[in-house]
Amino acid sequence: MRTLQDALSRLSPKVLTGIRRGIEKEGLRVLPTGSLALTPHPLALGSALTHPYITTDYSESQIELITGAHQGVADCLQELASVHQFVYRTLQAQGDEMLWVSSMPCGLPTDETIPLARYGGSNVGRAKSIYRMGLGHRYGRRMQTISGIHYNWSLPGVGSDEYFALIRNFRRSAFVLLYLFGASPALCPCFVEGRQHNLQKLSPHALYLPHATSLRMGRLGYQSDAQASLAVSYNGLQGYAQSLHGALTQPYPAYEAIGLRNPGGDYNQLGTSLLQIENEFYGTIRPKRTVRSGERPLHALRERGVEYVEVRLMDLDPFEPLGITERTMRLLDVFLLHCLLADSPPDSPEEIAEIQHNQQLTAERGREPGLVLHRKGQAVAFQDWAAEILHTCTPVAQALDAAHASQDYTAALGYAHQLLATPGQTSSARVLKQMEQQHGNSFQEFALYQSHQVRNTALAWPWTPQQQARWDAQAAQSLAEQAAIEAADTLPFEAWRQRYMAVEGLSV
Fold it and tell me: In CATH terms, is domain 4-506 a member of 3.30.300.30?
């Protein structure tokens, strides 16, 4: 069994400064009143199909902002700021829409009125929209309007086995991140209309749980009874790939009942298996590999191995203009490097059930005094376990600081210790406090106020005509690339769909 210190000692400063991280940040477009904007994705932002930095997620109303992979934390945030500035200025010019800064959605219309994202008339564009139609049939459109931040992370020289070791450790200890950075303890009653839930009424305009950290990551968020039946192994690439392969290829009765097409011939979904495509599989962290044109993600993973991991449990921070801070990113770097280097025994079905239990408890009751989690069949105090994890991260933070000639990583870890000791300082507690003190316990009024504040902040940042011209050119180029893809299509869509969904495309 290797020790963390041994593993750290083998990493040179060059490797440690070679960490690459990128951000994908989702956010709903809303009207100045806080209602969901039902307008199409603005043409001035470019093509959602081909733009490298600006796309849509589930809904036409849900923008996703993307950075490249950066070795510098500040560089990554600076790029994210530039994307924000272009988007906010474009929205202002076209009617004063803005981005909703909370992970839990704004006031939503009826489920069927939430617009699906559109990507043009190409086969690949149509497939992306049909996939979203399928998600709506399977889980409801409201659930898909939840937004978050994905943190993509890699370290030079790391192979698939090591990334899966990281993933196992991350899943074991991710409850700490839910406590530290969860920022969705309340929501608009419209989100759960017609659904069973265990939330308490805070006011006519908010439901909540008093000690919740991240309702987004709890039972009301990205959860699926169908996917709960998946026994996905994280003990290596082969087992993981086999788990997903079955879910992608075996018919699932409930989804067969929905049917591939409706009586009018329009598509209901891309396929009738448990997962339409790989992206439908929910999780707090995913192994990833950049795909080639027309390639299935599972094929890419099997052929070329894991390239990076995608952390998926981060809520938007409604108090921060970019939804995330440098300090948070540095803490994530420490946490992920610790998960990579610490001993990581294989997981088991019993441990996977414990992980799910601990995630839901922390999401719904993470700030509750005396909270108890499960570890290896034994009860363990949340505070004790979380403090133990943060303590073991100390040498990792010190090594990163030594490589960067800074104190930033140690300071970020110190802040995490402070939040653990003072639950009232966490974002989730601050949301509830501000709702109570300034907004009559209305979730909608709180998030609307914060959205206006963030919009005004972003619009006040310096912006040059040269920056505007560069982003305008990028938008125009993306539209030209979409047109070229549409012009190059030769196959009828059904033939293209069958080829893309074929079992052969998942194997090496």
Answer: no
